[in-house]
Amino acid sequence: MQGNNQTDCIWCVVPVYNNRATVKDVVAGCCSVLRNVVVVDDGSTDADLRALLSDAKVVVLRHDKNLGKGRAILTAAEYITSRGGTWMITIDGDGQHKPEDIKNFLPLLIDKDPAIIIGSRNFDTDNVPGKSRFGRRFANFWLRVETGMYVDDCQSGFRAYPLQYLNQMKFRGAHYDFEAEALARAAWAGLALRTVLISVYYPAPQKRVSSFRPFLDNLRLSHTHAMLVGRRLLPFPHKRLVSVRKDNKLTLLRHPGKFIKMLLKENVTPGGLASAAAGGVFLGALPLLFAHTLVILYVSNRLRLNKVVAVNAQHICMPPFVPALCIEVGYFLRWGHWLSDISFATVFRQFSDRLLEWFLGSLIVAPIASVLVGGAVYLIASVFRKSTAVKRNA
Asked: What is the pTM of this model?
């Protein structure tokens, strides 16, 4: 394609690891849309990509060994920046995405909005694996917890990154976990997360080739999400790359009615309500003596959960039943039998022992209770939402 002034600063990047059968067609499609295309060979062993793509007008960068998709993307970002590029569109080399969908991104890039643009895959097609549908919902949920933002397909690797901001961020992930970390850190930095609709192709299961390693890569993703949630809970501000105007909610305290309405309307999707209830129950089961409400309010505020639901959900764990259950479970874990002598001496004179057992038992009781309550709230909220929608349409 002959470039023009508007798109010459936009580069396409194809990270490749053992995609010999599909990469040539993907690269040709990218070249038909954009002038500047970079292929990053992340240690492929199935082909010499420089030789395979010798007739294409593309730059081929190579890692001598497989360093991971995230590292391949960052290698391309460094190269493109050194050549004056400002936007980088990444597309997988496995043929899952259609290069012509790059055109869907261009109007948003020309506007130069400080945002990461994510291609939202249309799953209304054949051969979509069940694990892909689940992974999409799973990733969307964790991004919502980590940033308070909802993106309908944050697992998609077909994206546009603004290099001015990407190059200022620090990342720990180097494989598939990079893409989850990049969205969270971008949101914390003040960038918007926008989506465009794209098509997707999944071959029949027997013809499918993927470099995703279920155990190792899911372990990396779990570690990354745990790290991001932990960072979100810390009271220290994130480094802002884009200024974001925030409404001062403290002014609402002068208007109690508006303040209460704001709290009641906070994250009221079925998933949001379920997360708040699960969080309230989980923290309510822990031995946070005389501090449950304060801790729940703090965590709910940091994770943007519905504070009203979270605080009220903790009442399920009020004494005596749940603490006693936790102590019994913890006692069994310590001694191999149940605590049968419940008296003033065994509870109050041996309070330090009971507190330890409460903590140990809560590590089992709290997750189970939070899943049960969260699931129940999700079902109730979903049914209520559907019945409300039916009444409105009637």
From this structure: 0.79
How far is the C-alpha of 191 from the C-alpha of 149, rounded, in Å?
11
Q: How many CB atoms lie within 10 A of CB 321?
A: 10
In a domain, 264, yes or no: yes
**How far apart are the two ends of the chain, measured CA to CA in Å?**
52
Q: Is residue 70 part of a domain?
A: yes
Task: Classify 18 in phi/psi space as left (phi over 0), alpha (psi -120 to 50) or beta.
Answer: left
Domain limits for position 167: 10-233
Q: For the CA atoms of the chain, what is the radius of gyration?
A: 25
Q: What is the pLDDT of residues 22-31, one digit of tens each?
A: 999 999 999 9
Name the residue type at position 119: G
Of all helices (H) and strands (E), which one includes residue 40? strand 36-42
CATH number for the domain that contains residue 214: 3.90.550.10
Q: How far apart are CA 130 and CA 133, in angstroms?
A: 5
Half-sphere exposure at residue 258, Cβ-oriented, CA atoms within 13 angstroms? 7
pLDDT digits (tens, 9 = 90+) for 108-165: 987 667 999 999 999 888 878 888 888 898 899 899 889 988 899 999 999 999 999 9
The domain boundary, picked from 233, 259, 275, lies at 233
Q: How many domains, in total, are found in the chain?
A: 2
